[in-house]
Structures are given as structure tokens and as C-alpha cells.
Amino acid sequence: MKAKIENMVILGSGIAGCTAAIYAARANLHPIVYSGEQDGGQLTVTSEVENFPGFEHGIMGPQLIENSKKQAQRFGAKFLIDIATSLTTRPDGTFEIMLGSGEKVHTHTVIIATGASARWLGLASEKKYKGRGVTTCATCDGAFFKGKEVIVVGGGDSAMEEALFLTKFCTKVTIVHRRDSLRASKIMQDRATHNDKLAFIWNSEVTEILGDGKVVKGVTLKDTSNGKTREFNCNGVFLAIGHVPNTNFLQGLIEVDEKGYLKATKDMHTNIAGIFAAGDVQDVRFRQAITAAGSGCMAAMEAEKYLANKGIE
Questions:
Q1: Annotation marks residue 140 as catalytic
Q2: Gap between the Cα atoms of 31 and 41, Å rounded
Q3: CA 126, 129, 132: angle at the middle one, nearest 5?
Q4: Catalytically annotated residue among 140, 170, 234, 297
Q5: 189-245 tens-digit pLDDT
Q6: 137 is a catalytic site residue
């Protein structure tokens, strides 16, 4: 008996994957969505989302994902908990996906929406206060720290962007960097150093997140030059030490940039016909829920066109 070949498999169940599923399901393509390591993506660890259109009073990140899943399921999308461990091409022009469960699935098209994971410090206390003062997205959570003092950990362009954005809400923003100079571009350094709300702590790294059991109250800083530690009071910790795109399972099949992000055209095509990219896995700049959703829409529509051109409905 010949194995069934799916029309479309979507890898990743974040907002990009869910949006792709909505569009593909409405086109009667019966997409299958595999959750990936973090079912629902980064929005599931985000508290309130206030900048997604249509929700005047905001919406909790997990609820936005749940609503999107149900919307896709309403049109026939199928969501499964599993992880893609490899993706390979087949002689007939289709693709084979090996799953963590040991199963294989064959499909005519693939939308890779596996996202990018923020780098964390790896502290137990960091995990304890995640979403309660520790975050990786100023755009997402900055407004919750209005009138408060926060720190930003990092020294690159992303850290400067996060810090400058936070000055719109916070009374003081302190950039903590483990070196004595920034890695950021000169223009971003100039903007940061000339902002009166910004301060810098050099040659220091965060070794502990301090709190009252409910919210962050400060951090322990270690001087990288002499090893001495001290406590520093703050209400929030914003980590801006980079992101890691979740692309290891592709094993060189898809072209990536120097940071490992998938290279995609403006229409979400990768270098392999029939494989599309959506969301943070290919977005090195914006990394917002709304841009991820938009790219998921485009990927699904392009995949539908690809299938139609092959006479597959």
C-alpha cells in the first residue's frame, strides 16, 4: 500500500504556524501542525500582549495561541505534539520528515515556523522569575514597567534598541555588560550614551535574580575583572544577549545566514522549492507576533500556489 503524502506539514505551533494553518485549512489543504519543543512558541511564556491588532485591552499570550489553534482546527487543521528531528528531500519531489516519536511523514510542502529561542543566562532564579520581572522582549513587556527601574543585559544593537525603547516607560534603565565596551554599532552607541535615562555598568555579569518570591527586586552582579559581587536594586531584568534560530534539525538542507536564520525571499520561499519559512526562524529584525503572523499567512498562500501549479488540491 502506497504511503499517504500530506499536502502540507507545518513545523511549529507558534503564531506563525497557527496563522499558516488557518490559511491552509481554509484552502482545504488539511495541514498537519507539529508542535515543536515549545508548543505554542514564545507567546506561551509572554504574559499580556497589548500590541496585537483587534484586542483593545490586550490578550494573554497563551490565550492568543489557543484561540488561533481553535480557529485553524475549525477549518480542518490538525495539531500534533511532536518534534521534527530531520527533513530530507525524496526522489519524487516530496519531503520526508522524521519525528521525535520515531514516525515519518511524507508531504508535498513544508512550512518551517520553528522560531528562534532567546538566549537565557541559565540561572535557576531566572527561571523562577520568568514572566514576573525577567523577560526577553521590551516591545512586548516594556509598558508593564512604567515608572520603574530596570536593567538590560547585553552590549549589542539589540540591547541598545531594547534599552532605548524602555526609556519611554521607565524612570531609569541600566545596561549591564560583561565587557568594558559595547559591541553595538556606533550609531546605536551614540544614541544610548546620549540618553539621560540610560546608565551603564561595565565589566559585570548577572549571577542571580533577587526577588520576594513574587516579583523581581534586584540582581547580584559579579565584576568580571576582580570577581567581587554586589547587589543592585531593580524592578525588571531584560535579557538581550541574542536569539538562537531553531534550525539544527535541517542539517544544512536550507540556506541560512551567518547567524543560522533561514534565508527566505520576500514571499517566504527558501532555496528548496516546496519548502517555505515563516516567523522568527527567518526574521532577524522584527521578531513580533504580528510580523510572524503575517509571514505565516504569506507562506501558506505561496504553498497553496505551489501545490496548485503541481495540480495538487
A1: yes
A2: 18
A3: 140
A4: 140
A5: 999 999 999 999 999 999 999 999 999 999 999 999 999 999 999 999 999 998 889
A6: yes
